[in-house]
Each structure stands twice: as C-alpha cells, then as structure tokens.
Amino acid sequence: MDIYVFSDESGVFDCKHHEWFVYAGIIVVGKYEMDSLARRYIAIEKNLRKNPKYRTVPELKGAFLDDKSRRKLLTVFSDTMKFAVAIRQRKLDYARVFSNTRSKQNYLDFSYRIVLRRAFEDTIARGSLFPEDEFNLFINEDNRLVTADSLHHKEEMILKEFREGTYKSRFGTCCPPLFPNIQKVKIALRNSERSTLIRGADIIANTVYTSAFNGYLATLQEDSLFHIEFVP
C-alpha cells in the first residue's frame, strides 16, 4: 500500500517581522483516492477560471483567491485528513532557533514531524489505518531551496519516528512507534504548477495562516478531519 502526503507552507520564518508560520497539507491513502481528489480539484479550478479576474492568473494559489473561491476548492478535501502546524514565532528562543540556517531548518522539520505524527494518530483512531499496516510513505512538498542532504535527513527522522518511536531525554518522555512495519519514506519536491494536490495544500496552508492571523482558527478546528497543532 502507498500513502501520499501533500504539503506546503505559508508565511515567512522570521520571528522579528512575522508572528505566524504554517505548514499544512493532506494525507491520502492509495493512488485511487489521490487521482480522484486531483480530478475533482481540477474541475473546480476550471470553473473558477471562468471568472474574468482569474483567467490570466498563472496559478490559482491561496494568495490570489477570494474567500469564496478558496472555500470552493477546500470542499474537495471535506472527507480527507488534513493537518497543519501553526508556529508562534515570537515565542521561540531566537538564539536557539534562528541563529543559523541549519537550526531554523531543524526546528521546521521538528514541527513538521510533530503534526504529521499526530495526524496519523488520528487516522488510526478513526480506523482508516492500523498500526500493523505495511506501506510506503511518499511525501510531496512544494518546491523550495533545500539541499539533498537536508531532505534525506528529514526522511530518516520521519521513518525513525514512525518505525521505532523516539525518546526525548531532555523531557524524559517516550513516543512509541506508530507503524513498526512501515517500508520507506520518500520526500519529493514538486512544482505546484504541475502538481494539483500541492496547489490544494497551498490553499489549506494559506487558509490556516490567514485564520491564525485574524483569530479565526477555532472555526477550522471544528472539522474532525482537520488536525491543527500549535508550537511552541
């Protein structure tokens, strides 16, 4: 079995000038569901293109759409597990997190693993997946400037989190493995112009970001298929 994750980010990871940074996306079980979601999403995009103000926009991304148009696209994912981690940047330790590029990326990867684990825990609780399942996890992220070594490290850490669990000596806490039989984790960077569900992840991330900025996140949290984490 193959499970697919599509994710994107919204905001700027810069605590001096920005309050929120968001990672968000969807979890899709199997190629059939992935293809079905993509077809439905494209159909709504084509309908939105009939609006003169969207005809010349290269991509129908969240930043260019009005609230009504974003809501139409989000209906595609009404029965899909969605996730988001909202990082409250001004609560972070500046010296520890923002001192260099590597520490910034490590914190972003840590935050991503937290929400991904919790979202998968939700899928188990709902009976959509089972701890003994064997599957390959393909994570698709919007294209950005990142090294191959950084992506490989992120793959390894997610695989370890899911297959072996983690022990945090600093806090004396243990997170047991979620899926001991998971086969592999592979991360790929996708061009959103060519990846329909990356565009969908962008809409979700943008919606969470604007909702956090305007204090409307409680409405999104009413969706039982939308797992939202806050860090720190």
Describe this structure in words.
- The chain is built from seven helices and eight strands; from the N terminus they run ββααβααβαβββααβ.
- By secondary structure, the chain is of the alpha/beta class.
- The strands form two sheets. The chain has a six-stranded mixed beta sheet with strand order 7-4-1-2-3-8, with helices on both faces. It has a two-stranded antiparallel sheet with strand order 5-6.
- The chain is globular and about 55 Å long.
- The two termini are 34 Å apart.
- It comes from Candidatus Ornithospirochaeta stercoravium.
- This is DUF3800 domain-containing protein.
- InterPro entries: DUF3800.
Q: How much of the sequence is in beta strands?
A: 15-25%
Radius of gyration from the alpha-carbon trace, in angstroms = 18 Å
Structural class: alpha/beta
Question: How many DSSP helices?
Answer: 7
> What string, H for helix and E for strand, traces the elements in order?
EEHHEHHEHEEEHHE
Give the low-confidence spans. none
| Neighbour order of strands in the largest sheet | 7-4-1-2-3-8
Main pleated sheet: 6 strands, mixed
- DSSP, total strands: 8
Distance between the termini: 34 Å
Shape: globular
Protein name: DUF3800 domain-containing protein
Pfam family, one: DUF3800
InterPro entries: DUF3800
Describe the secondary structure blueprint for this structure.
Blueprint: E1 2-11, E2 20-29, H1 31-48, H2 67-74, E3 81-88, H3 94-97, H4 101-125, E4 136-142, H5 148-163, E5 166-168, E6 173-175, E7 184-190, H6 196-214, H7 217-221, E8 226-231
Parallel strand pairs: 1-4, 3-8, 4-7
Antiparallel strand pairs: 1-2, 2-3, 5-6
